[in-house]
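Dear colleagues,

As part of the handover before I leave the project, I'm documenting each prediction I ran so the next person doesn't have to rerun anything. This entry is a single chain, and its sequence is reproduced below.
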Amino acid sequence: MMTSTTMLRIEGVRQLRNPYTLAFTLAMPVVMYLLFGANPAYGGTTAGHGNVSFYVMVSMAAYGTAVAMSSLTSLAAAESKQGWGRQLAMTPLSSAGYAMTKLITAFSFAVLALLAVFTAGVITGAETTDLWRWFASAGIILGVGLIYGLFGLGVGLFFNADSAAALASISMTFFAFFGNVFMPLDGVMLDIARFTPLYGFVALSRWPLTDGVLTTGQADPLWVVLLNIVVWVLLFTALVIAGMKRSRRRQ
């Protein structure tokens, strides 16, 4: 059996009752947007093909997606290490089905995070010149944001279930501060930010609005943004492989 609707429902309800999931995945991106993107003093200022509110809204939606994918997949990996494989062997659900259920749950919360932030943006005046830019940004966020599932999986393989999800979420917050996500960076800090895990993802998510132009007036070539994403996909994959080898040695 590849998936189980019963397990999907239980997983969804369980995560909705998890304060870490609600705080970091759903509440924090919306609150951050309302604090820094919905400010009437500058929210309506022109930014690329839209306004500053739209710029911040996309950034926070991308952050929420990265947190959802990393924290929930880390929890899945940690649970698997605790013996879920033996439990699953007694049910019709296969290991692939278990992994697919967890992935669907993580993606569902990523969609919820995006919808929550975009809804807040619509209500508070986030605007762009063309409707397609909304869908383009949302598609990039949900499509490319899947790569943070690899990061969460790697963290879950190295740490126990109690700390893996929180560590993955906190790591994403740290990367967001130093990745030009929460606040515009300049100078040396911006140069460093280009090497961090969230920089390429968020810059690509903003691309339909900015065409790569930063708040400092500089512009990132598209290949720089894509290279950042490719390099971090390779590093996340290496982390997962190392975690799997470490987990097998312990068994």
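Strands lie at 46-47, 50-51. The two ends are 26 Å apart (CA to CA).

All the best with the project,
I.
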